[in-house]
Amino acid sequence: MSTRCFCRSLQKLFLRGPATRVARLCNSLVISDEKRQCTPVFLQSRNFTNESKGVNNFSQRSHSCGEFRPSHIGEEVKICGWVQYKRLMFLIVRDWSGTVQVLLPESMLGVLKDLPFESVVEITGIVHARKDGEINQEMETGEIEIQAKSIKVLNFCQEKLPINLNVNADETNEMQRMKYRYLDLRSEQLQFNLRLRSVMVMKMREFLHSYGFVDVDTPTLFRRTPGGAREFLVPSNYPGRFYSLPQSPQQFKQLLMVGGMDRYFQIAKCYRDEGSKPDRQPEFTQVDIELSFTTQEDVRNLIENMILQSWPSFKEQITLPFPSMTYHEAMVQYGCDKPDTRYNMKLHTVDDLMLDCGIQKIEDNMKRAGAHCVALVVPQGSMFSRKEIENLHIDQKFILVKIGKSGEFKANTNKFKSNTMQRLSSELKVQEGDLMIIVCGEGYVPYEVSGKIRTKAASLLEAKGVKFIPDNQFNFLWIVDFPLFLPAESGEGLESAHHPFTAPHPEDEKYLKTDPLEIRSQHYDLVLNGAEIGGGSIRIHDADTQRYVFENILQEDAGQLQHLIDALSYGCPPHGGIALGLERMLAVICGANSIRDVIAFPKTVEGRDSMSGAPTEISEDELAKYHIQVAPRKTTEE
Amino acid sequence: MSTRCFCRSLQKLFLRGPATRVARLCNSLVISDEKRQCTPVFLQSRNFTNESKGVNNFSQRSHSCGEFRPSHIGEEVKICGWVQYKRLMFLIVRDWSGTVQVLLPESMLGVLKDLPFESVVEITGIVHARKDGEINQEMETGEIEIQAKSIKVLNFCQEKLPINLNVNADETNEMQRMKYRYLDLRSEQLQFNLRLRSVMVMKMREFLHSYGFVDVDTPTLFRRTPGGAREFLVPSNYPGRFYSLPQSPQQFKQLLMVGGMDRYFQIAKCYRDEGSKPDRQPEFTQVDIELSFTTQEDVRNLIENMILQSWPSFKEQITLPFPSMTYHEAMVQYGCDKPDTRYNMKLHTVDDLMLDCGIQKIEDNMKRAGAHCVALVVPQGSMFSRKEIENLHIDQKFILVKIGKSGEFKANTNKFKSNTMQRLSSELKVQEGDLMIIVCGEGYVPYEVSGKIRTKAASLLEAKGVKFIPDNQFNFLWIVDFPLFLPAESGEGLESAHHPFTAPHPEDEKYLKTDPLEIRSQHYDLVLNGAEIGGGSIRIHDADTQRYVFENILQEDAGQLQHLIDALSYGCPPHGGIALGLERMLAVICGANSIRDVIAFPKTVEGRDSMSGAPTEISEDELAKYHIQVAPRKTTEE
C-alpha cells in the first residue's frame, strides 16, 4: 500500500482528531508571538540549543507534533506524544499541537506490533519531504514525515479508552464522558475551549492591567450574607460557628474602594448552592471589576473595550459601542430583559386594535388599567403541528391566526372580527405561512408570555431547518434603567431588584422616601445572544442612604452589614463595577451547549463529580472533629 | 505663613503618606508602559480628550494626584481624592498615586472649614508653577500646585479614622487594624504590597503564557483526600455527603496531563484547616504549575526564569541558576531543609575530634553507630547573657565554650580536654568573643538541634545590633534528593515524605521492593532566605508503580484514589511540576513580618475575620437545610 493510500484512508482521522483546529487556534491565539519566536535574552544566555523553541522549552522534545513544515526538512528532531494511529510501518503521533506521520525502519516494527493506541512515545528522527504523490493537503504537517531513528515507549495505554475522542461521537453518553473527563480532555473540542478560555482571560488581564487595575484576591471563607440562602456553609474550628462561601466578592470589592485601591479586578471563584439547574454549576467564575470615581457610561465603555481587546480573531468581529436598551423597551419589544437580538420577530403592542376585536373577554379586559394586548408574528409558523404549538406553551386563551395562501386567515376562534384581523395583518406586515399569536394580560405579563413563545419559536424554526438565527454572529446589548426595588416575592414589603448596594438613578433619588417603586436603578446588564453574561451598577457610597435602604425600605437587620455601613462613613469614594459570568460568555463564544463544556472538571447537573464521586460520605468520627453531625432525616409527618 | 513654611511643616507628612513609594512603584512596575503612554487605536477612534490618560480612563478625573510635573503647568485638570491635610487656604489631596497641593480661592474657603480629613473631594483647577522658594523637593509633585476653580465634596468622612494610616504607628494595635482593614488598605505599606503582588503575578502569567502554559481553573469542591485531616468540609445537598476544599489542585493537575493539556498553570486558591498557626492562613494562594515530558532540571530552570522575569526591578537583582543542595548536605551544613544562606555560620561535624574529648558520656556515645558531634561557632556569641543563651534552647547537656581574649577558653565543663579545644578552635577558626556550641546525638538529631540554635542566634545577633544578615539580599536555593519515604509518625510502617504521587529517583527505583527507606525522591524544594516558598516533583506516571506505592508501601486504601490510578493506565505522559506559596514568597520580597501583610483581607491567627465577625453562628433551622446539626460538646469524662 502506498503512503498516498494510507494518507487518504487516514484523512478522515486527521480531520477529526485534535489536530487542525487546535493547531490553528494556537497559531492565531498565542499571547505573545514575538516572545515565542525570539528567545528572551536570559534564555539565550543560557545556551539553549534551539533559540526559538518557546512551547518546547523546559521539556524533552525538540518540536511539537503539529509544527512541522517543509522548512524543517533535514532536521534531526525529537517528539513526544500519543499513538493516534498505526498501520504497517507508519505511526501517527499526536500532541496538543496536532499530528505528524512517522515512518519506522524495519528494525523497530517489533515495538509497534504490540503498542496500543493512546500509548505515549518518544521518537527521534529526521524530517523528510514526502514525495509529490504522497503529500496530504488535509493534514497541517502533510508535506513531511519523520523517519525514525529511535522509538521509546514512555507509557503503555493498558486498555481501550472507554470513550471515543471523536468530537461528534458519544454525544449521548454524557455520563461516561464526565466520569472519564481526564480522557475527554484529549478531545478537540475541550482542548479548544479550555485553551481559548485561558487566552481570552489573559487578554482581559492585560487590558485591565494596562489601565491600572489591581488584581486582588478576596477571601472565600466569609460570613453569611443576610438572606444568602444559597450559600455553602463551611464548619469552622469553633463549635457552632460557620464560614460561608460567598456568591460573589461584592462586599470586598466595595471595601477595596473604601481602601483607596482605586481600580480592582479579580477572576473570582464564586459559589452558589442551588441544587440542580441545567446551566448552573456550584462553583463558577466571575470577571469581577470595580473602580472609583466612575459613571455608568465609563463602566460600560471599559467593558466594551475589554471585550473587544480579548475577542478571538477568528470569530466574527464585534464593533463598539454596544447598543443599549432600557429595561422597559426590552420588555415591551422582546418580552424579557435579555433579548436575543440576532433575529427580529419583535413583539407588537396592539392595544388599540384589539379594543374592538369581537372577543368579549378581551374587550372587557382591555378596559382595565394596565391591560395590554401583545401580538407576535412567527414567520412560517403556520407549518407548526398541534404538538409543536403546545410545546411553545401557547395557552388556549391566546388567539392564534395562521396566514394562508393569498392572505387567508385561519384563527382558533371564529369570534375574531375579520376587519381587526385585516388591520392587524396589514400593520404587522404578515406574509403567507406566518403564524400570529395574540396574548392579553396585565402589565408586563402578556409581554413575558409572548417573549417566551418568541424564543421557543425561534429554536423550533431552527430545528426545522429554517435558517433564522445567523451563525457566528455576536449581539452584545446593554440593558439599563431597571427598577431599583420590586414588590417582595413573599408578598410583603419591597426587595432589591438586584442587590441592596445598587445606587438609585440620580433623577429618581427624590422618590426614595415617597415612592420607592418608581425609582430606576443605576444597574446595567450585559446580554450576549440572549444570554445574560454580566451585570453591575453604580453603588451607594453614602452611609446614610445605605442605612436607609437597609432599614427603612428593605427592613433588613442592618447589624449584619454594619461593617459595610461603617466603611461608607469613613470617606468612601463614588464607585461602580460589574461582574461578567466568564463561563456563560465563553459558552456563547464557543457555541457550547452548556457551561460544562468550558470548565475543565465540571460537576453534573446534580452537583456531583462523577470522576471522583464527590460529594462523599464522611464518618461520624470525622464529622465530630468539625463539631457537626448529620441531622436526622425528617419523616413526612413532621 | 508662607507656602514654603507650610510645605516644610508638611514635609514629614508627605514622606510618610502613601505618596512617594507607591508612586515610585507605579512608575517602575507598570505592566505595559507603552500601552499606558500611547492610547490604543480603538480608544483614539472614540475621541478621548486626553489620548494618554491610561489609568485615568473610564473615570471622572483627568489626572491622578501623584502624576503632576512642571510639564502640566497651564493645564486645566480635574482630580478626585481624599483630603489628607488642610490648613488655611491649602489642601493636600491624595489618591492611590500620591498627593498634590491645592490652593483654594477665598470664595471656597467655606467648604474647607467643616471638611474633615479623609473626606472625598473632586477639584477642578489650573496647574501653576510654585515660586522658587516654595518648591518642595521631598514631594513628587512639589514643583506645582493646583489653583482650584471648583471644589465638590463627594463624601464626608463622618468620624475620625479609628486607626492611624502612618506606616510606623499603631503597630501594637493589630486587632484594630484588622477590624478596620478597609481603612488600613489606604496605608502606604498595604497599597505597596498589594500592587506589587498584582504586578508580580501578572508577570508570572505573561511568562507562563509565552511558553505555552494554559491557565486552567480546577474545582475547589472536591472529594476528601485519604488522610486529608486538614481539609475543610462543605455540606452538600445530599444528606450525609460532603465536599472537601482541597489543600492543592494536585490530583487535577496530574489529570490535566493525562488529558493532554501539556502545560498547565493556575494561581490557585488552596485551603487548610489547621487552627492557629502564626504564619498560616485558612486560605492561601499557590502558583501551581505542571508540564508533560519534563525533568527535574527542566522544572527548576522554568521556575528560575519565571522568577527572574517577574522580579521587581527596584529590588536587589537575582542571578541564575539558583544554587542547589541535597537534603543531606542541607541537614549536615545547616541542620534544616530550608537553610538561610544569607549568612554563613555553618555546622561542623567534629566526630573524630570528639572521640577523645575527656567527657565520658560523649566518648561513649560516639562509639554508637550513627552518632555525631556537631559544632557551631556563633561569632561574638560570648556576649550573650545567661538568659539569652537559655532562649536559644541550649540544653545543659551541650558543651558551650566562650572564646576569650587571646584565645582563652571558658567551657561549661572542666572535663573538656584542653588539647581537644585547641584542635577544635584551630580547625573551626574561632575568634575572640565567639561562642562555640557542641551537640552530640544520633543521626540528624544533633544537626537539627544545632540548626535551630543557628537560626535563633542569628536573629539574636541582629536584634543586638550586630549587622549579620545583609539587607535586600535574596538567596534562592534548591533542595533536592529528599528521601521518598519516612518511618510513619504513628510508629508503624512508612509514609510519604511529601506526597504519594512523587516519583522515585531513577537510580533508586531498584529499592522499591526491597528497601524503600533508601530511595531518594524526585522532589525539590525552593527556599528563599530560609523560608520554604515552594516544592514540587516529577510524578509517578505508571499505574502499576502508583498502585504498588499506595497498596504495598503506604498501605492505603487505593480505592479512594482509583480514578487517579485508572487515569495513569490510559496513556499518561511523564510529567512533573511545582507549587509556589505566593504569599510566603511575597512576604519575603516585601520584607513583611507575616503573610497577612500581603493579603487584602486576611484572617487573624485564630482564623477569624475581625471585620465581619466570620465565622458566625447559624441557627438550627438554617443548618437543617444543609442536613447537619451542631454536635453536642463532649464532656471531659467522655
TrEMBL record, chains A, B:
Q: Which family does it belong to?
A: Belongs to the class-II aminoacyl-tRNA synthetase family. Type 1 subfamily.
> The organism's lineage?
Eukaryota, Metazoa, Spiralia, Lophotrochozoa, Mollusca
MF terms from GO for this chain are: aspartate-tRNA ligase activity; ATP binding; nucleic acid binding
PANTHER family named in the record: ASPARTATE--TRNA LIGASE, MITOCHONDRIAL, ASPARTYL/LYSYL-TRNA SYNTHETASE
What's the name of the protein? Aminoacyl-transfer RNA synthetases class-II family profile domain-containing protein
Signal peptide positions on this chain? none
Q: What domain of life does the native source organism fall in?
A: Eukaryota
Q: Which UniProt keywords apply?
A: Aminoacyl-tRNA synthetase, ATP-binding, Ligase, Nucleotide-binding, Protein biosynthesis
Q: Report the HAMAP family cross-referenced here.
A: Asp_tRNA_synth_type1 (MF_00044)
Q: Which SUPFAM superfamilies does the UniProt entry name for this protein?
A: Class II aaRS and biotin synthetases, GAD domain-like, Nucleic acid-binding proteins
Annotated ranges, domain Aminoacyl-transfer RNA synthetases class-II family profile: 194-615
Q: State any GO BP term from the record.
A: aspartyl-tRNA aminoacylation
Q: Read off the Pfam families from this record.
A: tRNA-synt_2, tRNA_anti-codon
Cellular component GO terms, alphabetically?
Answer: mitochondrion
Q: Give the matching InterPro entries.
A: Aa-tRNA-synt_II, aa-tRNA-synth_II, aa-tRNA-synth_II/BPL/LPL, Asp-tRNA-ligase_1, Asp-tRNA-ligase_1_N, Asp/Asn-tRNA-synth_IIb, AspRS_core, GAD-like_sf
